[in-house]
Amino acid sequence: MVNYVVLLIISLIIISIVSGISSPLMTISKIIMLGLAFLHAVFAGALIGILLKYSINLGIPTPIASITFTIILSLVAAELVERGFPTDSAVATIAAISTSLIATLGFIVSRISPIALSEAWSYVVGVSSLISLRDLFIIVSASIIILPLFLMFNKEFMFIAFDEDSARAYGLRVRLYRYLLYSLCGLTSAILAMVLGIFVAHIILVVPGVFALKAGKGKLFRVSLAVCLTSTLLGYFLAYLLNIPASGGIGIVSTFMLIAIYVLKRG
Amino acid sequence: MQLSDEILFDRVYVYYNGKPALIDITFKLKHPFFAVVMGPNAAGKTTLLKVILGLVKPSRGKVRVFGYDPIKHAFAIRSLVGYSPQLINVDEKVPLKVRDIVALGILTKYKPPRIYRKIDLERVREVLSLVGMEDYIDSYFNELSGGQRQRVLIARALIRNPKLLLLDEPFSMLDYTMKCEIAWLLYEIHKKFNTSVIIVCHEISSCYMFNPIILLLNKKLYAIGYADEVLTEEVLKKAYPSVTCLRNLIVLGEDHG
């Protein structure tokens, strides 16, 4: 029991840091909707993994299948935008592919076995109630990729968001940075959904960035990190008090924080 | 490759999705020049700048910027050309400070992580003082007025000591006094540093006193010459179909006059 609590708290702190850094960059780059579409891809990828595992005994861990599928779709989205399609078209494409797969594969997985169904369901509500050492290992590995890259290239992402034509004119390789940004967002979505479930991941992906931009432009990442850590840790204790899943508590705290900033910064 | 001192367009065509944006554009501008590209909306003015920058590849024809092909020699072009985009294309919600925006022009010369050096910061201060914005180095871009924002973008375009300055609608969203101030600033830069300047604009009145070279564009290049030669009713009628002449006053149509 102690182990489980420790694993969960470590996971929550790690995903808070990842989301705290990525959420403002996604908000500034106007790809929050794409990030949300990636959450659909995460679930579709998980269903592919579950199907492969239970129907043909292919031993790919479900999170790896989910992450791989999400990154492939994030690259598709980046290429669509680079080819001149609006971001909304990329969102629609990712959502269409993912939801068709979810509807089809979800039906098939539900008929394979109750275990397969419960594994799929864990992606909806998150593994926060039964996190394992393997899950933590995947989260840490993904964070080791995400955080240094976001920190190293955040200036470039900001320049491109500010004025893409000038970024190109001054020699930034915009295509490459778009591929990188979208893949990192896909990876972020994947680990958030793994721990918190795709519903609450929606909130944690959006709230910190919006809150930080509203609260103060000078302390963007610090505010976003503070919001993320507060929502996840306070949410966990709320969930403990109310005897609900941790992801539920986190969702409640995040939503209240967002409402609070709108009330405080009204006008 | 032979380096030269001119901007050359030779029978250049640009198409977007099969629709023409520029048709058979041929001209030559000898450095240093002070030029204004004018024409109605969707005349291809911004496309012309993007062709010079190498951001748009011509469908046909030859472009040379000081002897360089902008597509093949993009790196050389970037060190020779400074670019200031339309304010409308800049996302002011991105919380960047003036120093960061101006420094983009030099930071892209380095490999990531792109970190300021002392000499870069000095150069940022230098160009900001040139455009009268040195006191705003630590301000956020979205805290500035329209005219101040335009000055910051001009400072960024100047940071690499460009031989050619390209400015897309630098007078948009500014009142007349501010337009004249920016026009003066650009003309001073042209004179002081021998910089060639190409300004895309609808509003010519703030530049008219400098007698710039006018490129009258509406997909085709209808005229090229000094303002006092080109800005006549007969010439303007070719590019602006709705031009009207009311006793010494030429009304161009749309919202330009």
Describe this structure in words.
The complex is a heterodimer of chains A (267) and B (257). Chain A is 86% helix and 0% strand. Chain A is globular. The model of chain A has no long low-confidence stretch (mean pLDDT 90). By secondary structure, chain A is mainly α. Chain A has one domain: ABC transporter involved in vitamin B12 uptake, BtuC. Chain B starts with 5 loop residues before the first strand and ends in a 6-residue tail after the last strand. Chain B has helices at residues 45-53, 74-80, 98-107, 118-130, 146-158, 176-193, 227-230, 233-239; strands at 6-16, 19-30, 34-38, 60-65, 81-84, 164-168, 196-200, 213-218, 220-226, 244-246, 249-251. Chain B has a single domain, classed as 3-Layer(aba) Sandwich (Rossmann fold). Chain B has eight helices and eleven strands. Chain A binds chain B through residues 28, 30, 152-153, 155-156, 158-159, 161-163, 165-172, 213, 217-218, 220, and chain B through 50, 53, 55, 74-75, 78, 81, 83-85, 89-91, 93-96, 100-101, 104-105, 107-109, 112-114, 140-142, 156.
CATH architecture of chain A: Orthogonal Bundle
Query: Please, how many helices of chain A?
Result: 11
**Class of chain A in CATH?**
Mainly Alpha
Mean pLDDT across every amino acid position of chain A: 90
Taken from the alpha-carbon principal axes, the silhouette of chain B is: globular
- Indicate how many domains the architecture of chain B comprises: 1
CATH architecture of chain B: 3-Layer(aba) Sandwich
Using the coordinates shown, work out and report the CATH topology of chain A: ABC transporter involved in vitamin B12 uptake, BtuC
Our estimate of the beta-strand percent of chain A is: under 5%
Rg of chain B, rounded, reads: 18 Å
